[in-house]
Structure formats: structure tokens, C-alpha cells
Amino acid sequence: MLAWIILLPLVGFAFSILFGKKLPKPLVGFIASVVVLGSFLFSIDVFNTVSADPNGISERLFTFLAIDGFNVSFTLFADRITSIMLLVITGVGLLIHVYSISYMSHDEGFYKFFAYLNLFVFNMLILVLGSNLLVLFFGWEGVGLCSYLLIGFWYQNPSFGKAARKAFIMNRIGDLGLLLAIFLCAIYVGSFEFSVISDAAQSGALPEHLITTISILLFVGAMGKSAQIPLYTWLPDAMAGPTPVSALIHAATMVTAGVYLIVRNQALFMLSSSANELIMFIGLATSLVAAVIALKQNDIKKVLAYSTVSQLGFMFIALGVGAYSAAMFHLVTHAFFKALLFLGSGSIIHAMDDEQDMRRMGGLRKSMPITFITFLIGTLAISGFPFLSGFFSKDEILASAFGHNRWVWGIAIISATLTGFYMFRLLFVVFFGTFRGTKEQKSHLHESPWLMTIPLMILALLSVFGGMLNLPKYAGSLSEKLHHWIEPNLPILRNPVHVSHSIEYMLVGVAIFIFLLAFILQYRKYVFKSAVPEEDNEMSKSALVLANKLYVDEAYDKMFVEPTETLGDYSSWFDRNIIGLIPKSIKGWNTALARLNARVQNGNIEYYLVYMSLAVFLVLFLSAICLKLWN
Amino acid sequence: MELILISIIASIVTYFVPKGMAKMVALFGAILTLAYNSFLLQSFVADGTKKFVFDTPWFSDAVHFSVGIDGISMLMLLLTNILMVVILLGAMRKEWKRESLFYSLILFMQAALIGVFVSNDGIMFYVFWELALIPIYFLCALWSESGDYKTTTRFFIYTFMGSLAMLGSFIYLGSKGLVDGHTFAYDNLVAVKLSTTESMWVGLGIFIAFAVKIPLLPFNAWQPSTYAESPTPASQLLSGIMLKMGLYGLIRWFFPMVPETYEFWSNLIIILGVIAVIHGALIAIRQNGMKRLTAFASLSHVGLIAAGIATITIVGLQGALVQMFAHGINVVGIFLCIDIIQRRTQTRDLTQLGGIAKQAPYFAALFLILVLGTMAVPFTNGFPGEILLLKSIFGYHTILGVIAGLTVILCAVYMLRMYQKGMLGKPNGETFHFPDLQKSEWPALILLSAMVIGMGVYPQWIVELTEASSENILKIIKETVEGVS
């Protein structure tokens, strides 16, 4: 069953890449979607199985490497945590496949696009289904590769190619951390299986400093993939890829792999308080910095990208304070509403002839009603409108943070407030006011076709009702379903510190208050006063710093890229002038060299030498045979 | 034994057939050798002992013509014979002056390489080792791109001098060993006990020969310009197979011969190897010439392999063998792709290329697979070897392991840079009329790509083929060490 889940998208990939070019586009898109649908159905089956039996199922496929001290079997494993990931990947993935059939219909690389999407789904499924770190690493690198291929999908544009390369290389920095963690497990645990590592950590077989080291190295891997400080700058650039890719890979699935990695190795992380602290601080810093930058971005996809970074930061805060089910909960709801927002922005970009600057938009709600309503729902969900999915999932993180430490909650609530600010700014500037694009764009404005709007509507429904998965304590018997459901698969149980009911109500009150604050202030500014974000050359200095993303890219260039290049130049010099000295320094060689040169150049000497060597060879050879016969 | 005969005969026949037929005869010869090799593989049992043994006294009783194939030899033979077919397929697309001589030399090279990998006798190993140098010298010199013999001759003398030191060491070992009988037999040479000082000197001689050939830093001065100026088949032979002679030598001959001082040599080789990993990668990042870039990338990769061997652990040795095979496939493939680009655009300068993917999508796809293999992406052949090597070095010394691990990042930087600058972007004047793959380029690249993926998914077959032999070699080293202490 598990093998089928991964095999179907692989078959889809092979089909599209081999035959897709010649076949009609809708057929290619249809088949690519059907294989994901197949995986989705199998995932539901898995869901039912693990619901009945929380111990999960595993399937051994083949031996990848069997060497003393390095045994890797290609084994798949699914428990309840996995099954949530499976449903998100195949479910949201399916919707995005369907959406792409229409979105990419004019692209000549259509078949390639679907081949890569299928390949991505295949790798992502391997990532979550791997029963050991190495199989996970297969998927981990595989999704990085697909991300590279899809960010650089329009490869004729060199700056897109650059963004793709940046994403891949930053991910590889994280991957090195993951790889080192794998080696430590090989040496000190003697196995890569998650279950064995988890047992070793709990039984005390692993000393604490090793647990901390392995945890931090795993987290370095997570930083790369889930775009946390300091490895976050690739994600906004990754928006160069087609918008469905941003929705699937850079919002709903791949970037949450880091969260999954930590949940999967919960035992390690629970036993290392310093690793937890680190995760929490990085999460806090990331959620805040990204939210601040998002305030002044004018590219619609960039706002959403920074928003994703910020929301991922929230998930890591949850992990850092030990609220694992809250992190998974936010992962799921975020997948719904962020996929919705990205697909909605795709619908807008589609209607606007590839314009992405929201200062050139405005008033779109009339011409694109479905996109508007679904986008509105997404915005409300992410900024915490009461009783929508984001409200519950973010509140649970905030409550856990409050239980952990007031200061943590304090910073998190600022980020949460900023979420409302940048999202409503986006919503109002794009959909309200007057249209600011060109005449030609105006005449083209249209609602997107059904293939695109139906996925939007489904995701909108999920964004509204996704909160039902894990209602807070005060909801009574319906509460914390997700939490209780995945509990058996978290090796170390520690109930998140629960705050009293009165404080909980107070926290909800604060959350509603900040939501209203953001809504009212932004409404006043962008709708009532119909302000438009200023052009680049009108910006104040501080706004410019934000619009330029705090100049982090430039700083990284100065700190890492340029020194590496300089080192490369030094190495070249060293290679030429110092190492090159060795053969040059021996005088006698030169004379010999000159003599040989002269002889070779004067004509048939090469025949001579060939005959000679052949003759030597033959004589030796024949003599050997003769001797053998003679003996 | 028969393998050497087939390629030698093919070589001679190729030389005498009329012009125009030479390449077909050569290809036929290479395929025949490969077929026979596969036939041997069928009945091969990888239990660590030498199979298909042929042994007869040669010059005297002391020096035999002695061959045999164990798992490691078998792997190297497969690599050699598969790559030969690919190299010939790639070379066929071009008209070479003195065609029959050209193809004849390539097959001659094949015979010598096979001899190196199956030798069971020190002197015979040396003879084949030197014989391999003759054809490659002429291939590089006579068909040199720049028409300048200097680089090639320097390469020739450099490696030749290194090898002489090895001969000295072998003879010394022989003089310490058996007086009667097959003195230079592998088992006898290995069994010789040396004092620490002797072991250092003997080791030094052999080490220099192998270090030049691999090449290990700081003996790599011949490499970049030789790769860059030689015709592509010669670059492929050098980087794909010939440098594996050095690595093979380290495994089979060097460490088992000087177990007395192996810790010293291990440390030295690992440090040099790890430095080469970073040094080569950093230079590769700054290259615009595709062949030079590949040369430095190769320096980096081979440094990692040598360091893995020097850990003297089963993981390191097996990783090295898997990676030697993978590196051969990948580097030959990359050189072939560079050659395809250069033949069509007359340049391999990255600053002048770009946009080829648009004009030649199939070529771009197969090239990408080879690039990914080089970058050790999972499901490609570079991955299992690299992860084993890095693990072995990490286990040996944590810091060195981390430094070597940087290759994961740096390799992605220079390979993607090469691919993107060359293949992606907008077509320009040079690349606007870039025809996609033609005739013999197809089978060559498809064969290589299929191996990249196949080996990436199931590397275990190599492990099974070579495991017993690797264990044997480790046993030889460990036993002597215990005997001394």
C-alpha cells in the first residue's frame, strides 16, 4: 500500500517526461492529476489503518547499502504523523495539479511542468514515508532538486536561474547539517531507523551532549528547508517559479519538511533543552523579522513568501516550547490558507497579464468575485478572524508560548499582529480602490476559469473549517482531537503547560483585539483614505530598508559569496605558482623535454615508438605463453 | 588474460585496416571485450579470491606473467570496458587525422589498463603501468588541441619519474623476500616484513607513483593543462580510467605493502585528500573553461576518494570503490557533453555560451542527469559513494569530516554554475543553431545516464561484488599490524 503511494507519482513523472511532449496538454495534465488522486486515495486508506492501529505500518522494499557499520534498507513507514502529512501532500497537491492544468495551459513546457510536479510529489512522499534518516534524506534532497527545477522553470531568464541556484545551495548548507547528524547516528547509534534512534535517546544509551549535537544538526537541516534565519533568503527569491509551484512547494508542503523532521525525532528534541531553546529563539526571530519585512513588500508573491517564512517561524516556536501537536495543527491549517492565498494570487497574476506589483492593481473585487471572496477568506484565516482555522491554530501556539514564558508570548503576539497588518494591506490594495494598471490590462481583466476557481473554493472551505481538527480546551468534548490522535506517536509525552480558563479567555480576547486593530487601521488607511503604497523613489529611508529586505542578501554576498570567490582566486594562484613549481624546478627535465620535443616534432618518430612498445608488449606476451606451453 | 589478447589484437587490426573502417573495427573490438567481460562476470563468484588465474614464469622464476581477477579487479575491468565503448562512440563523431593510428592507440591503452587491473606480480604490474603511459602520451601529443607538445611531455616525464620510484620500491621489497621461486608475486611482496625506516622509504617510492597519477595535491600540476589541451577521448581516458589506476594502486598495492607505517600514510593521505577536496572545488568555482572546471572538480572528487581509502575502514574502502566507478561514468559523460558543445559552437568558454537547453532539450536533459550524478543527488550514482566516503572520514576525524563535507555545498555551486551558464539562459549567436543529439551521441549518453540512475538506486551490487576482496585487504593490513605490535 505504501509503495503504491510513492510509485504512482513516479509513474506519472515517467509518463509525462517520456511521452508528454507529443500528447495533448489536457491529457498530460489529467494523467498527472489522476496519479496524485490515486496516491490520495491510498493515503485515506493509510489514514484509516493507522486510526485503528496507532503503531503504524511499515514496508521493506529493498536493501540500499549493506556494509558493516552502514546498513540502509529502503523501508517505508507510516504512523499517524505520517498520515497527516500524506493527506496534506496528496490532497493539497491534487488541487494544485488541477489548478495548474488551466494556469499553465499556454506554456510550451507544459508536459515538463507536470513531470516535475509529479516528481516533486514522489520525493515529498518519500520524505515523509521514510522509516529511517537516510530514506528521508533521499526525499529531502529530491524535493530540493524539484524545487530547483521548478523555480528555474522559465530557464531563459537568467535571474530566475540564479534564484533557483540560490535555493538549492542554501538548502545544501542545511543538508550538510542533516548529513552530519546522520553520520553521528551511524557512529553512536549504529542505525538510521527513527525508532532505534528514539529508543537509544530514551534509554540513555546516547549521552546528553550527543543528543543535543544531533538535535541541533537536524535543526540546521530544518533551517535550510523551512527557511529559518539565517537560511531564509532563498524562499522569497523562489517566487520566480510559476505560482502553483509557490503554492505547493514553497507554502504547503516542502517548506514544512523541517517541522516534520523535528516532530519525527521528537524524543531527541524533548531530551535536549538547549536545542529546544535554540529552536524557539530562531522561530521567534524569524517570525518577527519576516513579518516586518512583509510590511513593505509590493510584489504580491513576495508578501506571501515572507508571510510563509513568518508562519513557519510560528511552527518552530511551537516546537521550541514543546507543543508538537500545535505545530502540526498550524502546519495543516497553514497548508490550506497559504495554498489558497498563493493560488488566489496566481489567479490575479493570470488576469493581470503577469503583473505582480500590487501598486499596479486595485479594485479587482468587481471583476474577479470568486477570487476576491476566496482570497478574503484566506486573509481572514491567516490573520486570525475568530473561529476560522488560523485563529485556532495560532491561538494554540500563543497559549503554549504563554504557558512557557510571557516574553515569548509577547514577541509572538507582535508577529501575529503584524500578520494582520501586511495581509490586510495586501487585500485592500489589490481588491479595493481604483484600478491602476494599463488600459490593456483592464480590458483583459476576467475571472479565472473553473479549473482554477474550484480548487480555490475547496481550499476556502478547508480554511474556514480546518480549525475543527483541534478545537481549544474550552470547546469541551470536541476539543484537542488532533492532539489526542497523534499523541500515541509522540514517544515522550509531556502535556503542554495549560493555562487556566480565565487566562485562556483573556488570550483569546487579546487575539481578537489585535485582529480588529489591524483590520481597522489598514481599512482606514487603504480603503477609507484610499492610500496606495509609495513608489520606490518616494520611500522614506526606513521604508526603503524594509523594501530592500534589510539588505540581508547584500550582507551575505559580502560575508560569504565574495570571500569564497577570493579564496578561489588564491587557490588558483597557489596552484599555478607554487604547486606548478614542482615539475618546473627540476632543470634536467627541461633538457630531456626539449630533446624529446625535437624528435617528436621531426616526423615519424611516433610510429617508431608505437612499433617499439607494441613489439615489447608482444614479445613479453608471447614469451609468457611459450613458457607456459613449454613447462 | 583473454581480455588483454582481444584488445591487443583489435588494436593491431585497427591499425592495419583501411581508412574509414578503423573506427568500426575499434568499436567492434571494444564491444567484444565488454561482451567477454560480461561473460566472465556471469561465472564470477565474489568470494575474495582471485578467479580466472593464469600464471607462468616470465623473465625468470622470480617474475611471472600472472593474472587473476577478484571483486575489485572485476569492478575496474567493467568500468574500463564500459567506458571504452562510450569513449569510442563519442570519438566516432569526429574526423581524426591518422585515424587508424588514433583508434589503435586507444585500444592499446585498453589492453594496458586491463593488464594493470589484473596483475598479480609486481614487475608485471609495473610493466603494464608504464605501457599505459605510451599510448596516452601519443594521444595527447599528436592530437593536441594547441599543437604544443610541452604540456604533454611534461606530463609524461612527471608521471614516468614517479613510476620509476615505484619500481625501485618493488625491487627492494623483492630483494627482502623469497630468494627462490616467484619472488615478485603479489602475495610474496605483501608478506615481506619491513622495519619502520624501510617501510617509510618503500612507501614513499610507491606513494609518489600513485600520488602523481591520482593526482593528489601537491602532485597535480600536470593535470589541468593536460586535460584542457588533450583531445576529448584522451581527457576521458585520463580522468575516467587512468587516474583510477592510482586509486586502485593505493588499495591493492600501497597499503598492503606498508602496513608497518600505515597510520602515518593514512594521516598524510587523508589530510592531502581533504585539502584537495576544498582546493579543487574553490578553483573550479572560478573557472570559465569547461574542461578546466571539470579537471579541478575531478581533483576535488578524487581527493575525497583517496581520503576515504586511507581511513582503512570497510566503509571507506567500499565507498571509494563505489565512487571510483561512479566518478568514471560521470566524468567521461561530462567530458563528452563538453565535447558535443565544443564541436558545435567551437568554444567551451562559459562566458560565450548559454541557451542551449532551448535548442537541444534532449541533450540538456541527459547532461543534467550527469551533472546531478556529479553533485551526488540521491537516486544518482554519486550519492552512495559520497555518503560512505564522508562517513568514513567523519568517523576518522570529526573536523576533517566536516571540512570534507563542504564539498556537498561547493560541488553544487560549481556544477550548477557550469550547467546554468552553458545550457540555460537565452540562446546567443554561438548557440542559436545548436542541433540536438545525433547518431552515436545518443547511445553513448543514454548508456551513461542509465548507469547514473541505475547505480544510484541499487548500489548494493557493487558492494556485494567487492566486499570480500576489501575485507581481505583490510585483513592483510590489520594482521601485519598486530604481528608487529
Q: Sheet bearing the most strands of chain A, described?
A: 2 strands, antiparallel
**What's the overall geometry of chain B?**
globular
Number of self-contained structural domains of chain B: 2
Strand fraction of chain A: under 5%
N-to-C SSE string of chain B, H for helix and E for strand: HHEEHHHHHHHHHHHHHHHHHHH
Instruction: Detail the poorly predicted runs of chain A.
Output: none
Q: From the helix content, strand content and strand pairing of chain B, which structural class follows?
A: mainly alpha
Q: Helical segment tally of chain A?
A: 28
Number of strands of chain A: 2
Q: Please outline the major beta sheet of chain B.
A: 2 strands, antiparallel
Concise synopsis of the structure shown:
The complex is a heterodimer of chains A (631) and B (485). Chain A has 631 residues and is mainly alpha-helical.
3D architecture notes:
The complex is a heterodimer of chains A (about 625) and B (about 475). Chain A is mainly alpha-helical. Chain A has helices at about 1-20, 25-50, 80-105, 110-130, 135-150, 160-190, 195-205, 210-225, 235, 245-250, 255-265, 265-270, 275-295, 300-320, 325-350, 365, 370-380, 390-405, 405-430, 440-445, 450-465, 480-485, 500-530, 540-545, 550-580, 580-585, 585-600, 605-630; strands at about 55-65, 70-80. In chain A, helix 3 packs antiparallel against helix 10 (about 245-250) and helix 10 (about 245-250) runs antiparallel to helix 15. By secondary structure, chain B is mainly alpha-helical. Chain B is about 75% helix and about 5% strand. Chain B has helices at about 1-15, 20-40, 70-90, 100-120, 120-130, 135-140, 150-175, 185-190, 195-215, 225-230, 230-255, 260-285, 290-310, 315-345, 355-360, 360-375, 380-395, 400-405, 405-425, 440-455, 460-485, and strands at about 50-55, 65-70. In chain B, helix 12 packs parallel to helix 18 (about 400-405). The longest helix of chain B has about 30 residues, at about 315-345. Classes of the chains: A mainly alpha (about 625), B mainly alpha (about 475). At the A-B interface, strand 1, helix 5, helix 6, helix 25 and helix 26 of A face helix 1, strand 1, helix 4, helix 6 and helix 7 of B.
